[in-house]
Amino acid sequence: MDKGINNVLNSIQIAYESLFDAEKKVADYVLQFPEEAINMTITELSEKSDVSDATIVRFCKKLGFNGYQHFKMTLAKKFVNPNNIIPATVDLKDIKSSIKSIMSYKVEELKLTSESLDVNMMTMCIDKIINSNYIYFYAAGNSLPVAMDAAYKFNLIGIRSHVDIISEMQISSAYSLTENDIAFGISNSGTSKSILKIFEIAKERGATTICLTSSKKSPLVNLSDYKLFTVTNEELFFKEFSYTRVPAFSVIDTIFLLVYKSIMGNAYKDMNIREEVLSNNKY
């Protein structure tokens, strides 16, 4: 469905009388606070509207949208200025200053992410990783490179890890999880349907669930035993199309180095063996 940008709010008003009472609560909130709604996860909007996540999905589908994300993206086009996707100080006429601005922007993200990480939560995650049988990393879209990097790094130091890049294979592997394994989900929004399905399976299988996300109020957080959070500065609507995952990569690097430090003796030996084999692929 391709609704006109200016027709979303009108569509809500037209459909209003046909909505159930719970759905009208969602409509009332969106009509009153549309600019706030576009920056909310489905869980945040459900709390503000005092309804369930499922009610919001039904509300969106009644209006002809595929789901909440489709609804939110269409609504957001009315309010978000495309020029704000990147910092205002980025100027192609002054590349030197632009480089400095972009780098400062990323440094600020790292600083905020560092401050947001809970030391006790990190400590527990490290302990779980060290004592796990296997770590399955799960991600979708542009979070996949972060998951691939994580699996590669941990395998280097003898922590058995795996990542699949195809959604169906990810779901299939989730059914192999045991109570000694970890399902580590990486999702910036925390609302990826495939990752949520995987975490539901992981919980059923008794596996430990860890998430890395920038959304503290998201369905993924609710399904996770341990939660790690990043901070991004991009416009909230556009963060799923962000040109970088620097904070997420940095959190993975931090966990990796702390785990490596904890098991350094055996890890150093494993890493040397792997590097020696891999060196044959280099000139």
UniProtKB/TrEMBL annotation:
Domain (SIS) ranges: 125-276
Any GO BP annotation: carbohydrate derivative metabolic process
Keywords recorded for this protein, A-Z: DNA-binding, Transcription, Transcription regulation
Database matches in SUPFAM superfamilies: Homeodomain-like, SIS domain
GO MF annotations, alphabetized: carbohydrate derivative binding; DNA binding; DNA-binding transcription factor activity
Annotated InterPro entries: Homeodomain-like_sf, HTH_RpiR, RpiR-like, RpiR-like_SIS, SIS_dom, SIS_dom_sf, WH-like_DNA-bd_sf
Listed PROSITE patterns: HTH_RPIR, SIS
Keyword NAD: no
Stretches assigned to the HTH rpiR-type domain: 6-82
Record-linked CDD domains: SIS_RpiR (cd05013)
PANTHER family reported in the protein's UniProt record: GLUCOKINASE, HTH-TYPE TRANSCRIPTIONAL REGULATOR HEXR-RELATED
Protein name as annotated: Transcriptional regulator, RpiR family
Native source species: Maledivibacter halophilus
